[in-house]
Design a protein that fits this description.
seven-stranded mixed sheet, ATP hydrolysis activity
């Protein structure tokens, strides 16, 4: 029997297991703060509106419909983007409200801020999921992974036979959207699972603050932090997300400490973290989301506990193009750019081939920059060509080209200065 990975992939493809047989479309409707309609009425109107549009879209203009003044936004998305019609789709509508609370702080001893705290869904995380652009299907895979984790818990699958910890590890270079994707996932799952959980809670742990200035105290601080988290988990109606950014700070490889290169306090921190993960996996309403810029130094015992591990690299040219397009559409929406980019309109009869060539060239030149850098460049570009009135598309693209050039120059200077240290 040939069990190679290639043959396995071929068998899966033949059995159509890689593509869901049930075609589900999710529409998420954000209620206005002044909404007076009942939820079932909103669902009926959203279903009608989405099927009329018949394509995935972000809808914000509801003039002339019963949803005007009742709903601020409807986001429609589905996995199989090759579908041209929603006629055979199962449409699932999620109606939700957002919290307008500011980010809270969780403190330990001596007023030390140990975590940022969001009540979900949060207005501060709105739109984050839609604006994270990846070439890989990582977002859909994260949703599928989360659904499987909850299903196994619901079906009471014996964890001694099949093990899962509800731990995610996203790793890769800085600025590739790892932390943002974790926050967006927490927001998305809270919305999608609203019928099951009344609210979500997201705690972003400040890894560095958990290292005490007193020897041997750091492990105790980690335990105290997770005791606070436990009080949230004990409420079974709340979906809890624990985000540990730069997890290598807490889960540093113990072999280095044993070899004498790290203080023994670091070993206590890793042991405390692993113990808490093993405790929390018993609860169906908690996910641990972690990120790392330097995954090679993470303790293997922690890496082994992560069910979902994914490397996020720099955006491809196609992703660079989508990122810049989303930025330009936003600038046009607020009239900072004074005209449409006709070459971006597939049905436009007045395409400007020169601008199209310029845009493709600048996108190619930006490959290798991080997503964080790419989304700053339109701001830098406008500062280069700043005028009181709106700029033309051509002027903006030329300025964006210059901004990309400057960014590469700065990157090279930083790399050079590091090499001279």
């Amino acid at each position: 029997m040939n069990c190679s990975r290639t043959n396995l992939k071929n068998h899966l493809a033949k059995e159509s297991l890689l593509t869901p047989k049930n075609f589900y479309v999710h529409a998420e409707a954000l209620k206005s703060r002044r909404c007076t309609l009942a939820e079932n009425v909103i669902i009926a109107h959203v279903e009608e509106l989405v099927r009329q549009r018949d394509y995935p879209h972000i809808l914000t203009n509801f003039s002339g419909t019963p949803l005007a003044g009742q709903v601020d936004k409807v986001v429609t998305e589905y996995v199989d983007e090759k579908r041209e019609s929603l006629s055979d789709a199962t449409l699932v509508v999620h109606v939700y409200e957002v919290s307008y609370d500011d980010t809270g702080l969780e403190e330990l001893e001596d007023g030390m801020a140990a975590a940022n705290h969001w009540v979900l869904p949060s207005v501060h995380l709105e739109g984050l999921w839609e604006n994270l652009i990846y070439e890989s299907p990582v977002k859909n895979e994260l949703l599928s992974y989360s659904s499987t984790a909850l299903l196994f818990a619901d079906k009471k699958v014996d964890p001694n036979i099949i093990s899962w910890n509800k731990v995610v590890l996203l790793h890769g270079p800085p600025g590739t959207g790892k932390t943002s994707l974790c926050k967006a996932l927490a927001q998305k799952l809270t919305i999608r699972l609203r019928s099951r959980f009344s609210q979500g809670q997201l705690l972003e742990i400040n890894s560095h603050s958990l290292f005490s200035k007193w020897f041997s105290e750091s492990g105790k601080l980690v335990m105290k932090m997770f005791q606070k988290i436990q009080t949230l988990i004990d409420d079974g109606t709340t979906l809890v997300f624990v985000l540990i950014d730069e997890v290598e700070s807490l889960a540093h490889c113990r072999s280095a400490a044993i070899g004498g290169n790290e203080p023994s306090d670091a070993i206590r921190v890793v042991n405390a973290l692993l113990t808490q993960i093993d405790i929390m996996k018993r609860y169906p309403n908690v996910f641990i989301l972690t990120t790392s810029n330097i995954s090679g130094v993470i303790d293997l015992a922690f890496v082994d506990r992560a069910d979902f591990k994914y490397h996020l690299g720099y955006p491809s040219q196609a992703c660079v193009s989508k990122i810049f397009i989303s930025c330009m559409e936003e600038l046009r929406r607020v009239s900072i750019i004074n005209d449409t980019f006709s070459f971006l309109e597939s049905n436009s009869d007045e395409k400007d081939s020169e601008l199209e060539t310029l845009f493709c060239t600048l996108c190619a030149s930006a490959v290798g920059l991080s997503g964080r850098q790419l989304r700053k460049l339109p701001f830098i570009a406008h500062s280069i060509c700043f005028v009181d009135n709106a700029v033309t598309p051509r002027t903006f693209l030329l300025a964006l080209t210059e901004a990309i050039h400057r960014q590469w120059q700065e990157n090279e200077k930083i790399v050079g200065s590091k090499g001279s240290l």
